[in-house]
Amino acid sequence: MKKILSVILVCLTVFCCTLPTYARGTDAKLRFDANGDFTILHLTDWHTGYPLPALQKQLVIESLAAADPDLVVLGGDLSEAANEDQPAAIKEICDIFVDAEIPFVITFGNHDYLHGYTIDEMFGFYKEYGGTTFIGADEEPALFGCGTCSIPIYANDGSRAAYNIYCFDSGCEVKGKGYESVHSDQIEWYQTKAEELKQENGGEYVPSVVFQHIIVQEIYDKLFPVAGKAVRAGVREYDTVTYDLVPIPNLSNIEDGYIFEKPCPGYYNYGQLDAMSRNGDVRAIFCGHDHYNSFTVKIDGVDIVNTPSVKPHIFLRKINWGSRVITLHESGACESKVLLGIDLAQAEGSKIISSGNVTRIEIAAVKVWKAFADVSMSFWKKATEWIYKF
Question: What are the tens digits of pLDDT across the range 259-270?
Fold first, then answer.
């Protein structure tokens, strides 16, 4: 009998050791699949109360089912519950990914700073309620913000870090000026980490992607002209540069997606994009913050990508309601697409319409509006390209 029990215990031990776990450490590596792919779902700008509205929760659940991601990145500005409800609200969000057994991480947004808790306390809630499914870390607590970390994605055989994910806290606001940015100390940390990965990779930089809430300032150099000294109205100032906010931006520089609002980058530019462009390791910087935008703009060899909000907005803006699916390839390539709520709502078996205040008529109307926008976009791209030559 003792021998039988011993055999059973050994078998149970072996079985438990082979169960998937997403705790940080050498025994739980995120890896590319057999096809050399790794899928990330970027869910940002929930701006939700407590309890979580059924419509938003259903959108997230169906987005997870459609994307089947290996990792979820929460892009910040999640819960706007009352201060006393904040822990319970964060637990409700975390439970979605814990129940689905999908690892997740967060990059804080400016609204996450506004709930009566320090940002470190907020991070502690995600760690507590996310358990081993939450794989974020505050690798250098002395750095600006909280949650700056590096997440390696290993080759399918586990032999090396084939890709790397950088997560940055882009802060809250610069008093009297605008929004914060990724700071100099975080950029220095990135440069050190990139060099470490390079040495471990035989002298070659490891392909990487970046997630943060607030977009980089250089987006204005591609979309709007620099304003002359005589310009007084319709401008936006960032540190030493003032941009003329013409009614229609230069759409010829947008590779895909839509822009329905003027981007809101940080007021100060600490050189983040310059550093990443020089290294050539960063393929894309994924941001949220600007709810109605879903564009990709290439700047200095880096894709600057805006993911739209999970929160359903007013009628015409529902074109950009959803999330972004990002596919990393072990070869070093990276691609992404927007997973639209209006498409999910029309899929067979969807419960999005029945769970909230969005109707089939509204979804159908938005689809028509989207078709018109798609057809007319090529005209506007050519028109703005011609206008901006003068």
Answer: 999 999 999 999
Is residue 162 a contact partner of residue 155, using CB atoms and an 8 Å limit?
Answer: yes
| Cα(23)–Cα(177) distance, integer angstroms | 40
Q: List the one residue out of 100, 95, 46, 93 whose CA is nearest residue 69.
A: 100
Tokens of 14: 């072996």
Query: What SS3 state is found at 334?
Result: strand
| 3-state SS track over 290-325 | CCCCCCEEEECCEEEEECCECCCCCHHHHHHEEEEE
Pairing verdict, β 302-306 and 296-299: antiparallel
Alpha-carbon gap, residue 284 to 303, rounded angstroms: 4
Angstrom distance (rounded) from CA 276 to CA 231: 33
290-303 pLDDT, tens digit per residue, is 999 999 999 999 99
CA-CA distance, 7 to 282, in Å (whole number)? 50
Q: To the nearest whole number, what is the mean pLDDT of the chain?
A: 91
- pLDDT above 70: percentage of residues in the chain: 92
Cα dist. 158→26, 29, 115, 127, 163 in Å?
10, 8, 41, 26, 12
Specify burial of residue 27 (Cβ count, 10 A radius: 0-12, 13-18, 19+).
exposed
Domains and CATH numbers, the chain: 20-220+255-357 (3.60.21.10)
Instruction: Count CB-CB contacts under 10 A for residue 168.
Output: 27
Beta bridge pairs of residue 238: 241
Cite the DSSP H helix spans in the chain.
2-18, 54-67, 86-100, 119-130, 184-200, 219-223, 272-279, 341-345, 352-355, 360-387
Average pLDDT for 67-90? 97
| Per-residue pLDDT, 356 | 85
